[in-house]
Design brief:
Layout lengths: L5 E6 L6 H6 L4 E4 L5 H9 L5 E6 L6 E14 L23 E16 H6 L7 H4 L5 E4 L1 H10 L6
Parallel strand pairs: 1-3
Antiparallel strand pairs: 1-6, 2-5, 3-4, 4-5
The chain binds a DNA duplex (12 and 12 nucleotides) through loops.
Length: about 160
DNA sequence: GCCAACGTTGGC
DNA sequence: GCCAACGTTGGC
């Protein structure tokens, strides 16, 4: 078995919250709309079973609120070639897709959200990409960061 | 609502 | 290929 990797995805809860994910059939949704190359490359590096931290941005407070798992590896984001979607991109076509998405399945809400302010104040977390590259919507997380956040979030086993 | 950071676009 | 202008994101 290859090593499990960890990621963090951001969403504005007013657009799509962790609670919304947990209400989906099988708690599973496709993660569409990523229109940034670095974020896309991270999406394409995800493997089924990888851990995903779900972060609420533009929120009060901004915080990691839940954990999810990659349920399907990257496949073309069909919303890119749908002119009626929220993020159409004429450069992406069925034949030559530019943008991709994965499926993620919600696993558990953190017993206690881990706010950005605490992440910044925690020595082992203050180098997270979340802090340094705040705008990147899909980013890698180290195993240490994953375990630390789960512990701070009140999740025993991790 | 403001502003900083930063990715993208387009003129040259 | 450079770089200024512009748009978007996201923290505060």
């Amino acid at each position: 078995m290859t090593k499990r990797n960890y990621w963090l995805v951001k969403s504005e809860p007013s657009a799509y919250s962790f609670a919304d994910l947990m209400k989906e059939p099988n708690r599973t949704a496709y993660w569409d709309g990523v229109r940034n190359f670095q974020a896309r490359n991270n999406l394409r590096a995800m493997k089924v079973g990888d851990g995903v931290l779900f972060y609420h941005s533009q929120s009060d407070p901004n915080a990691v609120v839940g954990i999810a798992v990659v349920a399907r590896e990257a496949y073309p984001d069909h919303t890119a070639w749908d002119p009626k979607s929220e993020h159409p991109d004429p450069k992406s076509t069925r034949d030559r897709p530019v943008w991709f998405m994965v499926d993620i399945r919600g696993e558990a809400e953190l017993k206690r959200p881990v706010p950005l302010a605490e992440i910044k104040a925690t020595p082992t977390l203050k180098h997270m990409m979340l802090v340094k590259a705040g705008r990147l919507s899909v980013q890698p997380v180290t195993e240490t960061e994953w375990k630390t956040i789960l512990r701070m979030g009140g999740m025993e086993k991790a």
